[in-house]
Design brief:
Layout: H1 4-18, H2 22-32, H3 38-53, H4 55-65, H5 77-91, H6 97-111, H7 114-128, H8 132-136, H9 141-149, H10 153-174, E1 182-185, H11 192-201, E2 204-208, E3 215-221, H12 229-232, E4 236-238, H13 241-250, H14 267-270
Antiparallel strand pairs: 1-3, 1-4, 2-3
Length: 271
C-alpha cells in the first residue's frame, strides 16, 4: 500500500487541480484508494492539511533552492507536492533527514522517473542545510511575518494597521498552533462520568476541563469523534470552550426569556 505521504501528495495534486475544499478532496482520494483505517486517514490528512497550512514558507524555501530556469510551477505535480510534504517534515516536524529524503525519492522514482528522483534527492539535501530564519532576516517586517507564519502579506499588513506589530505577530503565530478539540457533554441525555467511560471504551481519551464541568478536552483519539456512538446519539458535541463560556457568563435563571438570534443547531440552548 502507498505511504501516507504519497497519498497526501495525491490529495494536494487534486486540491491544486480542482480547487475544491481540502476535506472534500481528501475524502475522494481515500475512497478511490480504499482507505478506511482511521489512523491511516488521520495521517494522510495531517500531512496534507499541515502542508497547506505552511505553504507560503514551504514554497519560499523551495523557490530559493531551485536553480536556473527551474521553478516550482514547472515541476511535475507529483514532484512538486512530494517536495512540499518532505519540506514540511524536515522543517516543521524536524523528522530525520535520511528517512524523509529516502521515502520522497522512492515515491518519485515509482511515480515519475529515476531522473526526477535524483532531482528530489538533491533539492532536499540542500534544503536540509538551509535555515529559513536566515533567508528572511533582511526582508521587511510584513514579508518576513508572511513567510514565517504562512499568512498572505495583505493580511499581515491589515493586522499591523489594526493592532500594531507586537499584537499582530502574536495573533499570527497563535493561529498556527495546533488547536485543542473540545467536547461538551449533553447532560440532558448522559452524565459526564458515564460519557467519559463510554468514550474510553471507544478509545477516545479525554480530560475534564477545570473551568466548566461538562467540557472535556480530547487527549487522544484512535478515530474521529464524529464516528463515535455518543456523538451519533447527540450525547456529546464538538463545541468550542468559548461557546460554552458564553452560556455560563449569561447565568440564565428559570423563567428568563432569552433570544439566541444565531442558534443553529442550538448547542448552547441545550446547555
Amino acid at each position: 500500500m502507498a505511504s501516507s505521504q504519497e497519498l497526501a501528495a495525491k490529495v494536494l495534486m487534486e486540491f491544486e487541480k480542482t480547487e475544491k475544499p481540502l476535506k472534500e478532496v481528501f475524502q475522494k482520494v481515500c475512497k478511490k484508494h480504499g482507505i478506511r483505517d482511521y489512523q491511516i486517514m488521520a495521517s494522510i490528512y495531517h500531512y496534507a492539511f499541515e502542508t497547506v497550512k505552511n505553504i507560503i514558507a514551504i514554497d519560499f524555501l523551495l523557490e530559493r533552492t531551485l536553480k536556473g530556469d527551474v521553478t516550482l510551477k514547472k515541476l511535475p505535480s507529483m514532484v512538486r507536492n512530494i517536495l512540499r510534504i518532505a519540506v514540511f517534515e524536515l522543517k516543521f516536524e524536524k523528522n530525520p533527514s535520511p528517512l524523509v529524503t529516502d521515502l520522497a525519492v522512492k515515491i518519485v522514482k515509482r511515480n515519475v522517473s529515476r531522473r526526477a528522483a535524483n532531482f528530489v534527492n538533491a533539492v532536499l539535501h540542500q534544503i536540509d542545510k538551509t535555515d529559513l530564519n536566515n533567508l528572511v532576516k533582511n526582508t521587511n517586517w510584513v514579508k518576513k511575518l508572511s513567510i514565517l507564519t504562512s499568512h498572505p502579506e495583505w493580511f499581515v499588513r491589515k493586522l499591523e494597521n489594526i493592532m500594531g506589530r507586537e499584537e499582530a505577530e502574536k495573533l499570527l503565530r497563535a493561529n498556527n498552533e495546533i488547536r485543542v478539540t473540545w467536547l461538551r457533554v449533553n447532560t440532558l441525555k448522559i452524565s459526564v462520568e458515564k460519557a467519559i467511560r463510554k468514550l474510553e471504551k471507544e478509545n477516545i481519551i479525554v480530560e475534564e476541563d477545570k473551568d466548566f464541568p461538562e467540557v472535556l478536552k480530547i487527549i487522544k483519539a484512535e478515530k474521529p469523534v464524529v464516528t463515535s456512538s455518543l456523538h451519533k446519539r447527540n450525547e456529546v458535541f464538538i463545541q468550542d470552550k468559548g461557546s460554552v463560556a458564553v452560556v455560563h457568563a449569561l447565568t440564565p435563571e428559570p423563567g428568563d426569556i432569552i433570544l439566541d438570534a444565531c442558534a443553529a443547531p442550538g448547542m448552547k440552548t441545550t446547555l
